[in-house]
Amino acid sequence: MERLQKVIAQAGVASRRKAEEMILDGRVRVNGKVVRELGTKVGPKSEIEVDGVKIEQEEHVYYLLYKPSGYVSTVDDDKGRKVITDLVPPGARVFPVGRLDYNTTGLIILTNDGEFSNMMTHPKYKIQKRYVAKVKNIPSYLAIKQLESGVELDDGFKTGSAKVKMKSVDQKKNTAILEIVISEGHNRQIRRMVEAIGSEVIKLKREQFGFLTLDGLNTGDWRELSHKEISKLRELANPTVPPKPRGKKKKK
Question: Which part of the chain is the RNA-binding S4 domain (predicted)?
């Protein structure tokens, strides 16, 4: 379910603020009835008319993409760099759920469902993301423990708890491979966390988002999320909401 003014704006009829004015002026009908309340929510099957003209709602789509390096996680870029929306099918006006840095690879979701995107990115829902980072300057045991308990970033933000595992070490090159699991998503967070303990990320990949992985995909590949996966992600973000009842299977 989406707010009525948001659906009108997404359909390209008007800006969200202008859509709110239209609702208050009684110019909008939902299923044949005039609606004047801004908090009204509508579903994908609701018939919406603005000034007597029916609007077409976009069907929600959900893509899982294996982002390559050299792409920005935006819809367009004023510097002319390649954008990840070019890697998924054209048609629906999708946007990335959160961001991965220009040089970071790995799993990212794209959708046109704003409510779903908010559930996946808002810190209060605590969706875990697992990264693998190759770092320069091998972190000490104490530094790893600092990452796990939370570190202060360069802007004063204190990160929450994390799970950190040292996967391998190359003493000659003074590098290490770290596996880091966080449930936040601040700008360049993993890179800044590593910098806070005196190391530097050389290579970074997101391997898991919630229960989703990159299994079966190569760099640049994408696939649609199944209805089951979408429902499971929603439940993961809001486990207090009981699952929808299912009909009984007919006996053969």
Answer: 2-59
Contact 105, 69 (CB under 8 A): yes
List the chain pLDDT tens, one digit each, 252 residues.
788 988 888 776 887 889 899 999 999 999 999 999 998 999 878 999 999 999 887 788 999 999 999 999 998 898 999 999 999 998 778 899 999 999 999 999 999 888 788 889 988 888 999 999 999 999 999 999 999 999 999 999 999 999 999 999 999 999 999 999 999 988 999 999 999 999 999 999 999 999 999 999 999 999 999 999 999 999 998 866 454 444 444 444
The Cα 42–Cα 171 span in angstroms is 59
Burial class (CB in 10 A: 0-12, 13-18, 19+), 113: buried
Do 112 and 137 have their domain in common?
A: no
**Residues assigned a catalytic role:** 101
Please tell me whether residues 45 and 167 are part of one structural domain: no
120 and 237 Cβ atoms separated by less than 8 Å: yes
Token pair of 184 as six digits: 């936040």
First to last CA, the chain: 36
* Chain centre to alpha carbon of residue 161: 20
Q: Token digits for 10?
A: 């997404």
CATH number of the domain bearing residue 165 = 3.30.70.1560
